[in-house]
């Protein structure tokens, strides 16, 4: 980005991909503003544990100069993958999760810790909190205009949509919208599990435990500080529980419904649903069409879930961080912003299409449709 002035770059969304992009740009001396609709970094919980793959997430952290700090926080022991028989809870032979492509170095880290690492690496004031973007308009001269929720606007030489599944930037490039995959996950959790639930902790092990049968799956995943997150997964209409007369905010009713669905499973596995702390979170799985592409529009581009939302099988966060890193590197290397974005999109779009295809197939393998 050789220019008489530092180009104005806006990243919409303070998720992992957008923050990785901002960090690499700043590391090379370029200014960037990140616009985030949440009120603060701690406005909401940041989800579970992520495995950082050597060729994607870790490559992004290396480019950001943060790999050593990541290693200090990461849990390499949490790479353990344990498959249990649903009827006996016996440990079965298993080589790895459905998305395992032979990588052996994939340490886990809590999403919140990773986001905090990236946020702390940015210049103070880079993230503008509580600034919701309503829409983006390409202006036809290679720039883009942000419209904020309060009615104000700002123009930028490049707007980067890193604002996730329900991106407000995506409509500037594509008419595509996420569709329900037919799969829903319901999340629960245990705090201080090693002390309060030692039997469950031993069953789950150091990393991820999974049991599956009859198009249903039960995951349990280690997080830091003794927390275990639990996810049930099943196929059915998005409103399945509501249609069954279950109020999603009624913890006892949701628990009873899940226990009925998983009737016949080993009691030690059912304890993951019966004894959890707190309530349940309903998480229907949405995905963008595969492949999701667009005609290049000067002044606007996408990364991460905004560009290629796919089922959550271990690739999304890694790809988002790689997207952000490669876009930043292209902007640093190319004298013309538009050439940089074109170069980035020419690599990112086919890569994400292949990954999304793999994830869709992985979801089918994990939770086969009825009759498959």
UniProtKB/TrEMBL annotation:
Q: Where does FAD bind?
A: 51, 111, 305
Please give the Pfam families that the UniProt record associates with this protein: FAD_binding_3
Record's catalysed reaction(s):
a tetracycline + NADPH + O2 + H(+) = an 11a-hydroxytetracycline + NADP(+) + H2O
Instruction: List localization entries.
Output: Cytoplasm
Q: Which UniProt keywords apply?
A: Cytoplasm, FAD, Flavoprotein, Monooxygenase, NADP, Nucleotide-binding, Oxidoreductase
Instruction: Kindly list the positions annotated as binding NADPH.
Output: 44
Q: Report the residue ranges that make up the FAD-binding domain in this protein.
A: 9-196, 300-333
**Is rRNA processing among this UniProt entry's keywords?**
no
Database matches in InterPro entries: FAD-bd, FAD/NAD-bd_sf, TetX_monooxygenase
Q: Give the EC number(s) under which this enzyme is classified.
A: 1.14.13.-
Name the needed cofactors.
Answer: FAD
Q: How does it assemble?
A: Monomer.
| Written domain comment of the UniProt record | Consists of an N-terminal FAD-binding domain with a Rossman fold and a C-terminal substrate-binding domain.
What is stated as this protein's family in its record?
Answer: Belongs to the aromatic-ring hydroxylase family. TetX subfamily.
The record describes the protein's role as:
An FAD-requiring monooxygenase active on some tetracycline antibiotic derivatives, which leads to their inactivation. Hydroxylates carbon 11a of tetracycline and some analogs.
Q: What is this protein called?
A: Flavin-dependent monooxygenase
Q: Which organism is it from?
A: Streptomyces mooreae
Organism phylogeny: Bacteria, Bacillati, Actinomycetota, Actinomycetes, Kitasatosporales
